[in-house]
Write a structure and sequence with these properties.
It is found in: Cytoplasm. The protein is built from seven helices and eleven strands. The protein is of the alpha/beta class and about 250 residues long. The chain has two domains: about 130 residues, Rossmann fold, CATH 3.40.50; about 110 residues, Dihydrodipicolinate Reductase, domain 2. It is elongated and about 60 Å long.
Length: about 250
């Protein structure tokens, strides 16, 4: 009997999607039953008998892709950004009507990046200042990155729980936005540079000391460990999970 998990990949022609196709094909416990590109019919995923859909498309398409998957009782593992609070709320409402169906939305599938986010969250309660710098290739469509935004949200909540106020900053004039985006009270700076893949630093400071937490992905294969973890685990986590750490036993 074939007990392999049947997987469909959306975004097969993209940089992440093509890596995911190879990773699923190489995994002995998974079976790639469909790989769709732009303009392909989502019904092909259902007709192929997929159990899990991996969405690595673009922000303009991901919501409809996941809505379709949940409507057809398919689990979804999502690495596409563009999921803001209202979209997440709508997805939770849909999942409430689909008991047993799981969706994982992960800002980053690299295990090291997930750990760096968690370490940033823990450290933020103990430092006066915190800022985030994310560095990516120039073909990236969004800024700040989903990973940086998620990190800032975690850091902001951690500082709020610890009773810490805003990072000290005497800036009174910034007409060109040099201080970066404000995400959950944390300044986030985006760099787009040829030759980069995906990199992020969380900079934390106290008087007389600095802690830097940095993660580097030099190749998109680094994300596949997390993608495969998501595919193998999503059926065990009904409802919506945001962040790969929800599937990792970090003991924290």
């Amino acid at each position: 009997m074939n007990d392999r998990i049947r997987v469909a990949v959306l975004g097969r022609n993209g940089r992440m999607g093509s890596e995911a196709v190879r990773a699923v094909e190489d995994a002995p416990d998974l079976e790639l039953v469909a790989a769709l590109g732009r303009g392909d019919d989502l019904q092909d995923v259902v007709d192929a008998g997929a159990q899990v859909v991996v969405d690595l498309t673009v922000p303009s398409a991901t919501r409809e892709n996941v809505r379709f998957a949940v409507a057809h009782g398919l689990h979804a593992v999502v690495g596409t950004t563009g999921w803001h609070d209202d979209a997440l709320a709508q997805l939770r409402d849909q999942l409430a009507e689909a008991p047993g169906t799981g969706v994982l939305i992960a800002p980053n599938f690299a295990v090291g990046a997930v750990l760096a986010m968690k370490f940033s969250e823990l450290a933020a309660a103990f430092f006066d200042s915190v800022e985030i710098v994310e560095l990516h290739h120039p073909r990236k469509l969004d800024a700040p990155s989903g990973t940086a935004s998620r990190t800032a949200e975690l850091v902001g909540r951690s500082r709020e729980r610890a009773g810490r106020g805003a990072s000290p900053d005497a800036t009174e004039s910034d007409p060109l936005g040099a201080r970066g985006a404000d995400v959950a009270g944390v300044h986030v700076h985006s760099v787009r540079l040829q030759g980069l893949v995906a990199h992020q630093e969380t900079l934390l400071g106290n008087t007389g000391e600095q802690l830097t937490l940095r993660h580097d992905s030099f190749d998109r294969v680094s994300f596949m460990t997390g993608v495969l973890l998501g595919v193998r685990s999503v059926a065990e986590h009904p409802g919506l999970t945001v962040g790969l750490d929800g599937y990792m036993d970090l003991g924290l």
